[in-house]
Amino acid sequence: MSLAKHTKTLLVIVAEAALEEFLVRDAGARGAQGWTIGEVQGARLGGLREGRWEADRTIELKLICDGAVADAIAEHVIATYAPHYAVALYFSDVKVLRPERY
Amino acid sequence: MLDVVVYFFLLGVFARLVRSDLRVPEALYETLAIYLLLAIGLKGGIELSRQPLAALAPQVLACMALGFAIPVVLFPLLRVLRLDSADAASVAAHYGSVSVVTFAVASATLAREGIAHESHAALWVAVMEAPGIVAGIVLARRAARGPARTNWRALAHDVLFGKSVLLLIGGLTIGAVAGAAGTAPIKAVFIDPFKGVLALFLLELGLVAGARLAEVRRFGAAVLVVGIGAPPLLALAGAGVGWALGLSTGGVALLATLSASASYIAAPTAMRIAVPEANAALSITAALGITFPFNLVIGIPLYIGLAQRITP
Questions:
Q1: Cβ within 8 Å, pair B277-A84
Q2: Contact B44, B122 (CB under 8 A)
């Protein structure tokens, strides 16, 4: 018998570390039940974020949730933070075993 | 002659310019920062234990007022340089707040040259960190004329309980409570190796500042004018306040240095949240890419010379 898997949405938000507290708070308020955060480095055209010291760090926030919750979070992030902060986000479908956890 | 720790900074800048693979591990950087803040606080606190706190109130108030006044004075000058109001307020806040490491290098230089200074000067650093940031935010909000969006409670929490003020005040308190005798057992860790640790930290800051140098071209002449022009002007103001307070020669030099220094840790973080429309790279390039090296290499000897001229 194969394992029962359920489809959820993985929303990844890459943003300036200064936003960490706000992103976590806002995601929680929109129904995200959990998240993972890691520090990353990267660059895009015209903007290198090496994370060489504390005022220059970048985080990657991963959220697995229902598609509607991911959409609500992404919409809020784009409207609130994207105009003035370095923010990138993307979605993908993932399979989970215990859907009620997400 | 430059203090030996400044050569470590220059080595860091050089390493960056020649694209060396040298990197100070993140965890070490964090450890060094915690160590320096605590050690500076402790050293000042030990001296605090020897004098009545009430006598220091005028100094504390004057330092806070100075920190608040610097952005207010700088803001219109920055607007003349055609910075928009958010950028001008953000840059002004960086200069209103202070650089702990610049202070540490100035103290080390004074000690090497045998110039006495108020040993509780770390207290000035602690109280000068926040007022400039507050003034910068007020300036940005007034200029924006929009609805007040600043969450002052959250901001006050971040500034007052942020790493730098917490560790400085914490160290000052521990030093004041424990006194010279109480802190004697930890002297071998917190007092004696201080300068070596400072040198290592400056190596890392050199690497970071070297990276900002490349940004100077992007912002043009304005950032150079601010980065090099502001420190001597602000040092004059600080020296004047120090002189009026009746500080020693070293004390006047330290207050001039603090006034001339720009924050590159507390202010960028606070301003990023409070004034998101400001260009963070502009402020950091001026504060860390230009002013910090300028103060280390040219400014500090200049401010010490100024203090020697105006004090008896």
A1: yes
A2: yes
